[in-house]
Amino acid sequence: MITDSSSTDPARASAVVPASAGASEPPMIVAEGLSKSFGPVRAVRGVSFSVARGELVGFLGPNGAGKSTTMKMLTGSLLPDGGRASIAGVPLDGRSLGARAAVGYLPEHTPLYRDMRVRPYLEFIGEVHGMGGRARRDALERVIAACDLDGYVGRRIHTLSKGYRQRVGLAQALFTDPDVLVLDEPTSGLDPAEIVRIRDLVVELARSKTILLSTHVLPEVEEVCRRVLIIAGGQLVADGPLHELAEDSADAIVVAVDAGSTPADEVASSLAACDGASAARGSFDGARVRIHVTLDQGAERYALADALARAVHGAGWSLQELRHEVPTLERVFLERTRQLAAGGESSDS
């Protein structure tokens, strides 16, 4: 019997942040043909997208895809070799202090002064931004409350857990109360409890901010983002709502068999010859061979499932699993990045 491998979780669906503002409002983040090279390495190649006010957008890609370089260009930390970017309608051109003030940036490796205590460090951040007196004090209290740092402001930063160091990093990104947040791997290296706390904080911030969120944790994106951007080899390979990208993903059936000493590629070739199959790829899963069979366009999955079962029986193999693989973000990610990631030249993460 063929079964679906996942189901919709109403609780998870309710965690998605509110929809973006009306389409007539100018976007808060705009990238137009952004390109960047480091010597002979082309890290980013003509990337274009926009993010509307109020959106929380996932920005995904394999290691070396160009994500961090793109985000640095969007925050003014790097100037592009080609193309242009703007934040809140203000171009980022190297002289755009207004655009830089409108964006808060949390790098993957947060550059904190770890010997400083939390409150003096955040006061220093205010001074760097030219804030003085009452404005700096008000901002300090606001970010301490927003990042739940009360009770930790007297601690030296190096004594904090990584999760609380990330909170301090978020506090510095929020100090000017920016309209846009660019977050690069905010939960990297955290334990499960800290991941949940940082994720909940990001969702809360998304109620009043536009957020571009880069992460390798795909379930995290499925939890909180309605839209994803996928980059591979320095190029944008997908942009859209999760459900639309999943619908575009090729339908597939997973077959697991005990094929004795038969190599996985031979099993895959045999099953790929079934009517309704467009391709198949196999791998060993312990003592079993697991085959991922992609349906031909217009093929009926139940007819293919029956043909696969008959092919396995006819070959004398033992059928151990046969199921429809529901399109997931992981599948979309792998399908969209497989070809370009193999030849990508980017040097960042």
Structure report:
The chain has helices at 10-13, 67-74, 97-101, 118-128, 133-146, 162-174, 192-205, 218-224, 242-248, 264-272, 301-314, 329-342, and strands at residues 29-38, 41-51, 56-60, 82-87, 90-91, 103-106, 180-184, 210-214, 227-232, 235-241, 252-258, 277-285, 288-295, 318-325. Helix content is 34%, strand content 27%. It has three domains: 12-102 and 178-248 and 327-349, P-loop containing nucleotide triphosphate hydrolases (Rossmann fold), CATH 3.40.50; 112-172, no CATH class; 250-326, ACT domain (Alpha-Beta Plaits). The strands form three sheets. A six-stranded mixed beta sheet has the order 6-7-8-3-9-10, with helices on both faces. A four-stranded antiparallel beta sheet has the order 2-1-4-5. Strands 12-13-11-14 form a four-stranded antiparallel beta sheet, with helices on one face. The chain has twelve helices and 14 strands. A hairpin with a 2-residue loop joins β12 (277-285) and β13 (288-295). It is of the alpha/beta class.
Write a compact overview of the structure shown.
By secondary structure, the chain is an alpha/beta fold. It has three domains: about 10-100 and about 180-250 and about 325-349, P-loop containing nucleotide triphosphate hydrolases (Rossmann fold), CATH 3.40.50; about 110-170, no CATH class; about 250-325, ACT domain (Alpha-Beta Plaits, 2-Layer Sandwich), CATH 3.30.70.
